[in-house]
Design goal:
Layout: H1 4-20, E1 31-34, H2 35-39, E2 51-58, H3 60-64, E3 71-76, E4 80-85, E5 90-95, E6 100-102, E7 105-106, E8 119-121, H4 130-144, E9 150-152, H5 157-166, E10 171-175, H6 179-191, E11 195-197, E12 210-214, H7 217-224
Parallel strand pairs: 1-2, 8-9, 8-10
Antiparallel strand pairs: 2-3, 3-4, 4-5, 5-6, 6-7, 10-12, 11-12
The protein binds 2-hydroxy-1-(hydroxymethyl)ethyl dihydrogen phosphate and magnesium ion (2 copies).
Length: about 250
């Protein structure tokens, strides 16, 4: 099997050279957005420069409590997505226009469009503001009463999205995630034939902290009608406008 990292890095360098119009003798210039660097005060702005978006551990709470699912995510701004589930030793990869894979095997979303037969993944998030928690529970109640076949949550946004890409669950939605949680897996979902949508419909905005990833437009649109939408501070807001979620204690962030 070809090494996905080797071809990814070759292509990444080619993109960076093109963006910077550099010759092969000039070092390429990448930008980075990472959960920890943003927490340390770095900007979280996407520009035209090729940018790696990184979440070293997605599923920190699982990690701290030695729960099952922990992933690392890496995305080169809509060109590549890599999610590694270290406990299962599963490497999910996607390259724009070239499909999505798990350990080299092609991924395909579920063909189930009847929401009553669907498994929907979501999370409770880390914000403990009672008004936010009420909205999350209202959405959960509405989704359960659609009715759906079941609701699950892996504890990792990236893993929930890879489950959509793998056809194990029909949809995932969450409000409160960050760009580094979902960027890589977004490409994996769309390359596996899935759709991404904002929780109020329309195109997803990866900085908005809101996402639906589904196997089909039909299922995504049912969720749009069901979710109680709200808007957390955007990832690309000025640092003074960002608020720390109540369970995001810096000592626990990895
Ligand atoms: O564990 P992390 O990276 O904080 O991510 C959470 C959501 O923000 C789980 O997806
Ligand atoms: Mg993380
Ligand atoms: Mg994360």
């Amino acid at each position: 099997m070809a090494d996905p990292w080797e071809s990814t890095m070759d292509h990444a360098v080619a993109i960076a050279r093109k963006a910077g119009e550099t010759s092969s003798h000039v070092p390429v210039c990448f930008r980075f957005i990472g959960e920890e660097s943003v927490a340390a005060g770095e900007s979280c702005i996407l520009s035209d420069s090729p940018t790696w978006i990184i979440d070293p551990i997605d599923g920190t709470t699982n990690f701290v409590h030695t729960h099952l699912t922990v992933t690392s995510t890496l995305d080169l701004q809509v060109e590549f997505g890599v999610v590694y589930s270290c406990i299962e030793d599963k490497m999910f990869t996607a390259r724009r226009g070239r499909g999505a894979f798990c350990n080299g095997e092609p991924l395909q979303v579920s063909q189930q469009k009847a929401v009553e037969q669907a498994i929907v993944a979501t999370e409770f998030g880390s914000d403990r503001d009672p008004e936010v928690v009420d909205k999350i529970f209202q959405s959960l109640r509405n989704v359960l009463c659609l009715p759906v076949h079941g609701v699950r949550g892996a504890g990792s946004a990236a893993m929930n999205m890879c489950l959509v890409a793998s056809g194990c669950v029909e949809a995932y939605y969450e409000i409160g995630v960050h760009v580094w949680d979902v960027a890589a897996a977004s490409l994996i979902v769309s390359e596996a034939g899935g759709v991404l949508m904002d929780v109020e419909g329309g195109e997803v905005d990866l900085m908005s902290r809101r996402i639906i990833a589904a196997n089909s437009k039909t299922v995504a649109e049912r969720l749009v009608k069901t979710i109680v939408a709200f808007s957390p501070p955007r990832d690309d807001a000025a640092p003074s406008d960002r608020c720390e979620d109540s369970t995001h204690l810096s000592a626990r962030k990895v």
